[in-house]
Amino acid sequence: MKRSAAEIVREYGPFAGVEAVHGVTYDGTHVWFASGDKLSAIDPASGKVARSIDVAAHAGTAFDGRHLFQIAEDRIQKIDAATGKVLSTIPAPGGGGDSGLAWAEGSLWVGQYRERKIHQVDPDTGKILRTIESKRFVTGVTWVDGELWHGTWEGEDSDIRRIDPETGKVLEQLDLPSGTMVSGLESDGADRFFCGGGERGNVRAVRRPRRSSR
Amino acid sequence: MESLITAAARALEAGDPLGALNRVALRNDAPSLALRGIAMAQLGDLAKAKTLLRSAARAFGPREAVARARCVVAEAEIALVSRDLSWPVKALAAARATLQQHGDLANAAHAGHIEARRLLLVGRVDEAERTLAGLGTPPLPPASLAIRELVAAGIAIRRLRTRDARAALGRAARAARLANIPALVAEVGSANLILDTPAARLIAGGNEHPLLLGEVERLATSTALVVDTFHHVVRRQGVAVSLGTRPVLFALARLLAQAWPADVSREMLIAGAFRAKHADESHRARLRVEVGRLRTKLKPLAEISATKQGFVLAPRKTRDILVLARPVEEKHAAVLAFLADGEPWSSSALALALGTSARTVQRALDELARSNKVQSFGHGRARRWMTPPVPGFPTGLLLPTPLLKT
Q1: Does A36 contact B at CB distance below 8 Å?
Q2: What sign does the dihedral B371-B375-B379-B380 (CA atoms) show?
Q3: How do residues A170-208 score in pLDDT, each as one tens digit?
Q4: Is A135 in the B-facing interface, judged by CB distances under 8 Å?
Q5: In terms of Cα–Cα distance, which of B67, B195, B388, B272 is closest to B59?
Q6: Is any Cβ of chain B less than 8 angstroms from the Cβ of A27?
Q7: Cross-chain Cβ contact B405/A198 below 8 Å
Q8: pLDDT at position B179
Q9: Which domains can be identified in chain B, with CATH numbers?
Q10: What is the pLDDT of residues A144-158, one digit of tens each?
Q11: Residues from chain B contacting residue A76 (CB–CB below 8 Å)
């Protein structure tokens, strides 16, 4: 297992009226973050909030190319990114104990925080397709280049780790400075992760390690 | 953080404890227990709240030190508000250290304020002041600032530093308004009343009149001979004779001072100091002995001379004698003074605060209850006492609500 310190390349926020960030996603242009009663889109170049949608947003956030998915209480809402309308909802697999959310390969991937699990879920029905065990509280989930990464928080420490999707084995780990929280994780598809800063109410960009084999 | 926990925490912060309960009512994981505890506290069920918070502290994992410490602080605050003073102080101090270590300075300060309020309540003013000073002045949310100034004002009032008390209360009022918590604004208001309500009675030359705290403070610089019934001391400026351990001598001194410049008959002295209805020869003999002892004690301050029918006091180096007494003197004035804060007290907490036995306090409370001066609620160990004119139970809880945001 490779282990190194996370390299924080940029911090966004804090933002007016935002107490805590609960989920993060990226739509190719904007970084979206969930802050309780709204989803906000920031321009990663300027760091300015471009628009926001008033919708219950208590945990993970994901984007499938057209829709935003947002966990609120014990369900996952499917939101039209253009209009901000909630199109449908499915039950969240953790019954409200859900944290991170990602979209990949036609499935939703949902972190179940204290159960230390990641569920693969059918986005239409909410059916659990399979479950991956982690070792830590799961705070955010993302897929990039066939790699499954998730954020953790336990005992005042956070890291971003790549795990084997079959076995749950930790393959690589990026440690954040002590007391720095990852709440919500998303890759930009290239060399950055965006992570929520929990009760700091900010969003951080962390460098994704380059792999020589790629 | 988890979805439902976030939703419940937000409901709590928005002042909707029922909404919070709705979301976590059936869950028994650590954060849910903590949220349920805080919601129950806000709904006024302090006993249930305490149990839930204790379970939450146990349920948080060994590595979730901050969450656990915040539960301990919340439980301590509930104990303070319900006047459960036997609550383990060490656990609170440990929680405060943990919060400090992990950079949660606001909640660490909150823990310190709870410690200081407890010390103030049980009359350990020096320790309360040290605790408050030890907290330094980290940047705090307005509600916490208000509490800090309230504690500072409480210390100043006990120290008879009226001007400091008023200044601290002024700052507390501003902070409470900023925090926008009506209960807190009201608490500062009632603290202000203390400064405008007679704190003592002055008896001099057979007359008496009420004194405000500020006037009591000014009295400290008076050149008169003062018989102070609060501290059981006879003093003139820097010279003080303590009679705290000699109640009979103090009673005699007070009787002589109240009558001054007139004398007091032997019968009155015997009745007043020995609580004897009929004076016989043995009482007269005892009076001679006790007056002799008092004469020796008071030598630096006053002379005691025999008159035809009794004794008279003659002060040295001053032409005034004043008696400083409680505003209302009755048998259980000290018990009533504690209950006058309008909070529910347990008899064991009162015993701790008064430094007497639980039995003595219980007898006093029973007697006061018979004359409707106090009322009780609850049974057994949960029984609480308070003075009648208080509507409901003011809680004044400022629980560390961001219990679950980390």
Answers
A1: yes
A2: negative
A3: 999 999 998 889 999 999 999 999 999 988 899 999 999
A4: no
A5: B67
A6: no
A7: yes
A8: 86
A9: 2-194 (1.25.40.10), 201-325 (1.10.10.10), 333-398 (1.10.10.10)
A10: 999 999 999 887 789
A11: none
